[in-house]
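Tutorial sheet, problem 5. The four components below are modelled jointly, 1360 residues in total.
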Amino acid sequence: MIIILKNSATKDEIAKLEDGLKAAGLNTNLIVGAQQSIIGLIGDTSRIDLDGLYAQECVESVTRIQEPFKKSNRKMHPANTLITVGNCVIGDGSLNVIAGPCSVESEEQLFETARAVKSAGATMLRGGAFKPRTSPYAFQGLEKEGLRLLSAAKKETGLPIVTEIMAAADLDLFEDVDIIQVGARNMQNFDLLKVLGTINKPILLKRGLSATIEELLMSAEYIMSGGNNEVIFCERGIRTFETMTRNTMDVSAIPLLKQKSHLPVCVDPSHAAGIISLIEPLSLAAVVTGADALEIEVHCNPKKALSDGGQQLRPDNFEKVMEKIKTMCGFLNKDFGRQI
Amino acid sequence: MIIILKNSATKDEIAKLEDGLKAAGLNTNLIVGAQQSIIGLIGDTSRIDLDGLYAQECVESVTRIQEPFKKSNRKMHPANTLITVGNCVIGDGSLNVIAGPCSVESEEQLFETARAVKSAGATMLRGGAFKPRTSPYAFQGLEKEGLRLLSAAKKETGLPIVTEIMAAADLDLFEDVDIIQVGARNMQNFDLLKVLGTINKPILLKRGLSATIEELLMSAEYIMSGGNNEVIFCERGIRTFETMTRNTMDVSAIPLLKQKSHLPVCVDPSHAAGIISLIEPLSLAAVVTGADALEIEVHCNPKKALSDGGQQLRPDNFEKVMEKIKTMCGFLNKDFGRQI
Amino acid sequence: MIIILKNSATKDEIAKLEDGLKAAGLNTNLIVGAQQSIIGLIGDTSRIDLDGLYAQECVESVTRIQEPFKKSNRKMHPANTLITVGNCVIGDGSLNVIAGPCSVESEEQLFETARAVKSAGATMLRGGAFKPRTSPYAFQGLEKEGLRLLSAAKKETGLPIVTEIMAAADLDLFEDVDIIQVGARNMQNFDLLKVLGTINKPILLKRGLSATIEELLMSAEYIMSGGNNEVIFCERGIRTFETMTRNTMDVSAIPLLKQKSHLPVCVDPSHAAGIISLIEPLSLAAVVTGADALEIEVHCNPKKALSDGGQQLRPDNFEKVMEKIKTMCGFLNKDFGRQI
Amino acid sequence: MIIILKNSATKDEIAKLEDGLKAAGLNTNLIVGAQQSIIGLIGDTSRIDLDGLYAQECVESVTRIQEPFKKSNRKMHPANTLITVGNCVIGDGSLNVIAGPCSVESEEQLFETARAVKSAGATMLRGGAFKPRTSPYAFQGLEKEGLRLLSAAKKETGLPIVTEIMAAADLDLFEDVDIIQVGARNMQNFDLLKVLGTINKPILLKRGLSATIEELLMSAEYIMSGGNNEVIFCERGIRTFETMTRNTMDVSAIPLLKQKSHLPVCVDPSHAAGIISLIEPLSLAAVVTGADALEIEVHCNPKKALSDGGQQLRPDNFEKVMEKIKTMCGFLNKDFGRQI
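Model answer (structure tokens):
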């Protein structure tokens, strides 16, 4: 950690600051510059509060050198984390595709879509039972009944299921769920993350609309520091000034997350753009930049969808996109939906 | 609502779409343009799902004309909502100042700060017991004990207390709290908002880091649709590309929220910039643009603060800022901290 | 175009507005809604000034239906525009790679780099003679001498040359340049665009740091409306809140530009992230989403580069990236650097 | 300047790097940390190229400590720069108001508006002769004739005139102009800035849509390094995700620019929000946070305006806004439009 001192810092102030830091068990190195002086700190600075340092009168700014994420950091854990879900493995270099409707709407809708995505090659089934909607007047999901239908669809198709949790209080209902999703709006709902850190199930952690990559890593850290090491990142587009797409997919986040962390990376091309015709190109971009999984919204009849109708693929279109994805995986020697 | 049709839309497709809309109880008006046609809809379109419309093949785009927020809309409720807290009223044109430490750290720290802010004219006391921190390794607040200390400080000073809730499960602990704060990261934690809609206490709703003004209004709508009409908005800066300030205070949001809604508006100049020297100018900017309240972080000894040390005012500086604010209120004929 | 009227609009005001619009040669369609009324306009509305309409008291808002770009619009010109440069064609489905140093620094540096990129398969040579630098104290380029060296390198290697213009006054110096680049900071330097519209040379138009895709299309429109139809878009990353990368590459812009326009699309992975290890994945993402060209910074000795040292590839690394790109082109049946 | 070294940096690499830096005349201080080492540099590092350092294999990152702007830096020049224009002084603590139409449209329109703004107390007249418009099909300004009309209006009213330059080639036409404005889209048109650095006239430098405050300071540096020290900053809103306003006025930029620099700060509330009803509150916010000038668009008949009709005030409304501004200046003991 480096502390940059103000021009106006007196010798006395600097000495006091150094004393305090030494008392906290750190070695200090004062460099007196022509115009400005700095203190370099050696030792474990992870528990030092930046804000406290900023409040010292002689301090101009503080720069952390070490990355603040640890358990999710590849430097600490060089090998990829592998997450086994049913017969699938996420993170071993293979590609998994999680597909299904935005919302679970009815048994008929869910089962028809589930069979269709399975037949097209999807390895897991998604479907929203609890839906985060901007308006309280919009469809909020079938909730408990939605989870029951997902379980039934899992039994019928054999596909592991992925669905979103919105409140820690609902956790008991998620026993049969294979991967619990945390939505973008809850990425920094730290109380929820802490609870999810105590369970024994993989968490699909979606990047917040305006969350930095470092903040995404820190949210994984919340879950992992509770003991649950099975976190999958999900890039789903960030909020920018561009309005032609619903969000801006940050394609650079995919290779960067793979470099910085040992955890798997999923990409959601449906929300990233909100435009059906972009799902195929964005899926391919995700695969070639190193994604371990894709999450794609498919609806057996998008025209009648109760949410996100405009960005859900029809099964026939999904099949075409899947053909392209599988061929690309073949070219890249990337196992597609490898079963163990 | 206006539906813009694709160039390629056939008469047949358009007729089918119109039939569906009429079946939903709406009047349709087809306008055939030289290059593009549109359908204008008359009737209550608030329950129509935009996404479903987007999934129709003949639809290019859909534009809502009516604002989606209702209970918070000034058009529906022209008079200002007044919120009584202890002897203070928020929303009647007067100014309230909520002040106190970022985090409650100890009895001594809280009491000393509480007495200081009261003597400088603050009308309410703030202090964080549950702290949303980016890192799981940072100080997370005194939690239950923090709330107990706030209650004690309230008894001692007579100041109503304002503190943040992070999980619905903690609600019982907030009985003695006068205003419950929802933090920026939880502005779209819809399950928490729904629970807060069922209680009988004012909610200070902070704007999310990347939330639009319309989304902030919709989050108030969640609380109000549950029956709790006492919502106070809080502008605290949004996330932009600028890095010299911690956030970018959206000063335009203050008069816009007052125009669009009848609910009171609070401004948090401490988080908006994260720079002590900007607290005074941003507070004055908030007052002259119509804010009903300010929330300012003050710490009796910022150098030892366990969080946000760099943006908390010392009591003596807070007093100077308060002098400026009071004088400005006098000039504007705005009651300062009027007691009923 | 649709005009949404205020609730308070009187019959009289509406009638006057309709008269004015009819006088301008447009057909108007008034739809009287339960809560709000609208006017649909039929006819050529491209010359109507939105701002003027907003100033009418009875108008709440105005929505354009037709896209404001014409000459660059694929609807008006469905076939791809092919741009021939030397023996290369850009826009015919093949891939071209433009490579070379950020800045031309010396004959030795340029020639060594030029030979290296040619041998690795680059089809064109880039190099900055006039450099837009944030600081006036930074190296500003060799200017005229840089252009002379580029010409010499072109003669020696046979590679067409691409370089940036910063001022219309320098245009005479660009006679031997094959593609003139307009930098991101000049994307809305409309006077420069107008001048470039009058010449007979392809223009590589870089997207501005905060330019929307529609604004990029409109800037092409400036050049094309002057008579020069040879415009190549260049996505090079936009400015967002993320700080881990220099910019955020908007990968969705690639397929969207191809859908909306008939003009070719180039991608600059060097500036998009500013991180060497991301050049390969971002290049592949660009190719699979439909890019017609890549522009990559290569320097024979990046450690001694006078600008952008940290994002320029060494020739040996460039060769490896090119191998990957060529193999991917082979898989996609995309001609690599096809010569006519 | 601080250089953070990679974990993998060898002693040899570090020694070589230190040698290179010493050869460049700098003193180096190596701090060997538990996990990471750094080099602190002492001496004039302003000419060191960050990019070159990034290209060294052993370097992880580089942090500048000194601010890169010099001539505009208050540290180098503590006293406010005063700019005299006609009988007005900008920067001495008084307030000037520059008002007039977005575009000069006709003699009648300009003269009527000029007389109206003068009578309401404006101290300078603005009007666009060269107009930067997103679309080439929109009204581009009266150009040379517009400048002639501005001169005539100056003679008639005695008000100094402010108007935008779009190309260095037009400079000769601006002889009678009192303040030359550089538009937001040209803030980093470095060639234009360099030319304006050689003349002897104040420059009103508008902040770019996505320019940081530091970049704005660096653009002033371009002008000042050419010898022209009379630069006035203009905050006019930045581009963010919010769509309810045209731009987001960065009110914090006003006090920050005053702290960091000795140059005067102007605020343009018309473009900052693009909403007429916000001009008054944003003007007051600008005044209380320390602005030296306001630039407000006024049109004698906004309904017929050829550009920006929706954000230009009518003279009667401008008069009301001016009353508020003058009263506020009175309260703040800020001279309003002081004449020397």
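Marking note: Chain D has a mean pLDDT of 92. Full credit if you identified this.
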